[in-house]
């Protein structure tokens, strides 16, 4: 039976891994803030959002792998668990080839969304192009990390992420401060670190690639592609929301864009930490769903949510009281620093509002309720854009932040409407292993 001790034991390595992962964007931003100008900061912000269509858009490879693996584990289908790993890696490889081929078009389409200056866009293009060469490694690593989470191998996940992000920190610092490559150096350092992490991760799970169940199984391939399709649509809705947030800042000023980007890294850090408990919920919910055990699902959500809500309060207080120290220390540009300090209070309350949404995301990912995630994601995106269009002309950047906070709150409400349907599904008998 799941206990608070087990939740903490599973979540702690994930939180460590997520904290390490968060350093990718944070280090990119802080190095540019310390050694660059507001133009460099804005370039990294826009380049990161453009690449984010890859970084976040293909996150479904991790999410669907975790849920399907955990469900197979709940049914005791160990050969199928190994087959899911193979399918995820092969799917990621095929998609990554398509992404590289289409990367110039993706760049043009992404940059067209922003109102950056020509100087900012040129620097952002260097970051994007260098970062893109790490996309295949990143996408295949998503399959590996998803399988690690679904099987409860959180310790291995922690080691992998520490290697990835530790190397990223070293390379980013070297390329920017010693070679003077600017935003291009940030992208190149991250790409090299991603390839290194993929090779190490592959070595970690190599023995589990043996003796899988049938890879070509129509029913399970349909389930895999169906889950990936719906989660992909939901994830792209999230990406558009974050891209819209950045775009709204660019319509105000470059300083606001840079300040918002730094604060968004604070929120990214909080999301990665809180995801430690959401990922445990994902794994435990998937196993409960596979075993058709509603009491186990209820207990998993209750225990993981207790930790998540408590941690969100701690993070919010840290942002509020320690945030000014960090901002003053790491942002050299006065205008960008003043913009970040002015809107720090909105950033500080975001974790409290977002935590319930993250927990529900974990529950729906683990139970592979892709349609619910898709419908809620797209619906709330439309509401969020409407809020921003209404508030920004009236309140400026305050309206931009209020719309973002409203988006987090409405995500919880929308997903909450689908919770009864998950428990209704549990009344159906589990599938026998074929």
Textual characterization of the structure:
With 434 residues, the protein is mostly helical. 85% of the residues lie in helices and 0% in strands. It contains 16 helices and no strands. Helix 3 packs antiparallel against helix 9.
Total helical segments: 16
Beta-strand portion reads under 5%
What is the residue-mean pLDDT, rounded to a whole number? Answer: 85
Low-pLDDT segments, ≥5 res: none
- Kindly report the oligomeric state of this protein: single chain
Briefly note the structural class of the backbone: mainly alpha
Using the alpha-carbon principal axes, give the shape: globular
State the share of residues found in helices, binned by percent.
over 70%
N-to-C CA distance: 28 Å
Task: Please count the beta strands (DSSP E, at least 2 residues each).
Answer: 0
Instruction: State the major sheet.
Output: none
Instruction: Report the radius of gyration as a whole number of Å.
Output: 21 Å
Order of helices and strands: HHHHHHHHHHHHHHHH
Provide the descriptors you would attach to this structure in a database record:
434 residues; mainly alpha; 0% strand; globular
Short overview:
The protein has 434 residues and is an all-alpha fold. The protein contains 16 helices and no strands.
């Amino acid at each position: 039976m799941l206990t608070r001790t087990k939740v903490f034991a599973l979540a702690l390595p994930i939180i460590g891994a997520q904290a390490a992962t968060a350093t990718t964007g944070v280090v990119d931003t802080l190095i540019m803030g310390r050694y660059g100008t507001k133009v460099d900061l804005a370039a990294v912000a826009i380049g990161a959002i453009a690449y984010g269509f890859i970084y976040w858009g293909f996150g479904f490879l991790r999410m669907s792998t975790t849920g399907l693996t955990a469900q197979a584990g709940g049914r005791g289908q160990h050969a199928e668990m190994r087959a899911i790993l193979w399918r995820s890696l092969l799917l990621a490889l095929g998609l990554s080839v398509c992404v590289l081929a289409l990367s110039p078009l993706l760049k043009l389409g992404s940059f067209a969304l922003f109102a950056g200056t020509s100087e900012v866009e040129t620097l952002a293009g260097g970051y994007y192009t260098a970062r893109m060469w790490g996309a295949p490694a990143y996408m295949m690593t998503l399959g590996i990390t998803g399988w690690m989470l679904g099987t409860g191998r959180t310790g291995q996940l922690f080691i992998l992420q520490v290697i990835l992000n530790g190397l990223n920190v070293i390379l980013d610092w070297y390329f920017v401060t010693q070679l003077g490559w600017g935003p291009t150096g940030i992208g190149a350092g991250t790409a090299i670190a991603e390839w290194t992490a993929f090779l190490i991760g592959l070595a970690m799970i190599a023995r589990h690639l043996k003796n899988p169940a049938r890879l070509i199984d129509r029913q399970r391939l349909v389930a895999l592609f169906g889950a990936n399709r719906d989660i992909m649509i939901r994830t792209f809705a999230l990406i558009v929301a974050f891209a819209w947030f950045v775009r709204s800042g660019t319509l105000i000023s470059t300083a606001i864009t840079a300040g918002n980007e730094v604060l968004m890294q604070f929120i990214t850090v909080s999301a990665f930490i809180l995801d430690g408990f959401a990922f445990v919920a994902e794994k435990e919910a998937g196993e409960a769903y596979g075993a058709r055990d509603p009491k186990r699902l209820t207990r998993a959500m209750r225990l993981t949510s207790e930790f998540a809500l408590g941690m969100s309060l701690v993070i919010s207080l840290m942002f509020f009281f320690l945030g000014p120290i960090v901002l003053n220390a790491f942002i050299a540009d006065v205008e960008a620093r003043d913009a970040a300090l002015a809107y720090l209070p909105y950033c500080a309350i975001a974790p409290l509002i977002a935590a319930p949404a993250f927990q529900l995301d974990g529950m729906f990912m683990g139970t592979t309720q892709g349609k619910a995630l898709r419908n809620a994601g797209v619906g709330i995106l439309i509401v969020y854009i409407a809020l921003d269009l209404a508030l920004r002309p009236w309140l400026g950047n305050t309206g931009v932040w209020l719309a973002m906070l409203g988006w987090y709150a409405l995500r919880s409400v929308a997903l909450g409407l689908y919770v009864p349907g998950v428990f209704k599904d549990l009344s159906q008998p589990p599938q026998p292993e074929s």
